[in-house]
C-alpha cells in the first residue's frame, strides 16, 4: 500500500465532486495511509463500507481529542465547549452526555415537534411565489434547522442569525483563525445563556435542558459543551441534507416526478437521498490508542483515523450501482448518521425537517428547477460536511 503524495481530500476538485477520488482510493485499498495537510503528518482514511462500520464500533479508535493532542504543539485556540464535547469524548464521559441528549430526539419528542417544524417551513416559504427565484440554502435549508435548535435551547430570535453565521464559520477549512474565533463567539454566548438561565427561574426549554443536565451529572462546562454541540451539529448537517437532497432530485427528474405524484413516498426516500450524497463526507476525529487491524490493514497506535461516510455510502460492495439514485433501494445501511455509540442522536429530527421541507417543495412548487447552470454551483470548502454555498431555484 503506497500513500498518496498529497492529501487527496484537499484537491480543489474534491469539493465539487468527491466521488471519483473516493472511488480511486477505495479501489486501491479501502483503508489507506494518507498525508494530512502540509506538515508531513499522516492519517488512515477508511473509504470502504464494511471497514467503516467496523471502525465506527472499535473501542480502540478513541474520540478523545484532548488525549491525543496533550503535550503536542499546536497553534489552534478552540473554545473548550467546542473542543471538549460529546463528539470528542469516550465512555464513561460520553455515556453521561448521551444519556442527557438522546431523550431530546426520541420518536415521540420529534412527533411533538413536527407541527412546530411545519409552521417554521410554512413561514419561511410564505412569500415564495411561482415564477420567482429563491436561494434554497439561504432561505430554507439554513434558517429552518437553526430556528428549531435555537427554539430547543431557548435562544432569543434576535440572536439566531449571528449564531448561524458563527456556526457556518466553524466549518471553514481554509482559515483556522476564523474557525477558532467562531468557536469562542459560540462558546462565550452559550456560557452567558446558560448562566443567565440558571440565575433566572423559569419553565422554558433551556430550563428543562438544564434540569436534565443536572440530573445527568453534567457540570456547568459540560452543559455548555452539550448546548454547543446541539447547536452546531443540530443544524449544520441538516442544512446540507436538505440542499443535497433537493439537488439530487433536480438532477434526477424521474425520481422528483415520483415524489411529486405521491409525496407520501418521501419518508421512504430519505435513506437513499442520505446515502447518495451524504451531508457528512468525513466523520469527526478519531485516533488509534493501540495497534489494530481494519480491513486487513495494520494501523499503528497513535495515528489519526478518518472514516468517510460519503465514500462508504458509494461502496459497490454494499450498494450495487452506487452512483445511481434509486428510490426503491434499501439504503437503511447508509452511514450518514454514523454507527455505534456515536451515531447522531438528532437523526430523527433531521429526517423530520428534511421530510417536511421536501413535502412542501413538491406540493407547493412542483415546477422548481435550477435557476443557474449546474456547473456554476459552488460547494463549501470543508471535508467534514458536504453542502452547497447556495442553491438558486426558479419556482
UniProtKB/TrEMBL annotation:
Pfam families: p450. Keywords: Heme, Iron, Metal-binding, Monooxygenase, Oxidoreductase. The keyword Phosphoprotein does not apply. SUPFAM superfamilies: Cytochrome P450. This is Cytochrome P450. It comes from Streptomyces goshikiensis. Belongs to the cytochrome P450 family. The keyword Oxidoreductase applies. It comes from the Bacteria.
Amino acid at each position: 500500500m503506497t500513500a498518496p503524495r498529497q492529501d487527496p481530500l484537499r484537491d480543489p476538485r474534491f469539493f465539487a465532486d468527491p466521488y471519483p477520488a473516493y472511488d480511486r482510493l477505495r479501489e486501491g485499498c479501502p483503508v489507506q495511509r494518507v498525508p494530512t495537510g502540509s506538515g508531513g503528518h499522516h492519517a488512515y482514511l477508511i473509504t470502504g463500507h464494511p471497514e467503516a462500520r467496523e471502525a465506527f464500533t472499535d473501542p480502540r479508535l478513541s474520540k478523545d481529542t484532548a488525549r491525543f493532542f496533550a503535550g503536542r504543539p499546536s497553534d489552534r485556540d478552540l473554545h473548550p465547549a467546542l473542543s471538549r464535547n460529546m463528539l470528542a469524548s469516550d465512555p464513561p464521559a460520553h455515556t453521561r452526555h448521551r444519556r442527557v441528549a438522546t431523550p431530546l430526539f426520541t420518536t415521540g419528542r420529534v412527533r411533538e415537534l413536527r407541527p412546530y417544524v411545519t409552521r417554521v417551513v410554512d413561514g419561511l416559504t410564505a412569500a415564495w411565489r411561482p415564477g420567482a427565484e429563491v436561494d434554497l440554502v439561504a432561505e430554507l435549508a439554513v434558517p429552518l434547522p437553526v430556528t428549531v435548535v435555537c427554539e430547543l435551547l431557548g435562544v432569543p430570535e434576535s440572536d439566531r442569525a449571528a449564531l448561524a453565521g458563527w456556526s457556518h464559520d466553524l466549518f471553514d477549512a481554509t482559515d483556522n483563525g476564523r474557525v477558532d474565533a467562531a468557536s469562542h463567539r459560540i462558546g462565550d454566548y452559550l456560557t452567558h445563556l446558560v448562566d443567565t438561565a440558571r440565575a433566572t427561574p423559569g419553565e422554558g426549554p433551556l430550563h428543562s435542558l438544564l434540569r436534565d443536565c443536572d440530573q445527568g451529572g453534567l457540570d456547568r462546562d459540560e452543559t455548555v459543551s452539550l448546548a454547543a454541540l446541539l447547536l452546531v451539529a443540530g443544524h449544520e448537517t441538516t442544512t446540507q441534507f436538505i440542499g443535497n437532497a433537493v439537488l439530487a432530485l433536480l438532477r434526477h427528474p424521474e425520481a422528483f416526478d415520483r415524489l411529486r405524484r405521491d409525496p407520501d413516498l418521501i419518508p421512504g426516500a430519505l435513506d437513499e437521498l442520505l446515502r447518495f450524497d451524504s451531508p457528512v463526507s468525513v466523520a469527526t476525529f478519531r485516533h488509534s490508542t493501540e495497534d489494530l487491524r481494519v480491513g486487513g490493514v495494520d494501523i499503528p497506535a497513535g495515528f489519526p483515523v478518518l472514516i468517510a461516510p460519503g465514500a462508504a455510502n458509494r461502496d459497490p460492495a454494499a450498494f450495487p450501482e452506487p452512483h445511481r439514485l434509486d428510490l426503491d433501494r434499501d439504503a437503511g445501511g447508509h452511514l450518514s448518521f454514523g454507527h455505534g455509540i456515536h451515531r447522531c442522536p438528532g437523526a430523527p429530527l433531521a429526517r423530520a425537517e428534511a421530510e417536511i421541507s421536501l413535502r412542501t417543495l413538491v406540493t407547493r412548487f412542483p415546477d422548481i428547477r435550477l435557476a443557474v447552470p449546474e456547473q456554476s454551483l459552488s460547494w463549501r470548502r470543508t471535508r467534514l460536511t458536504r453542502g452547497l454555498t447556495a442553491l438558486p431555484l426558479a419556482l
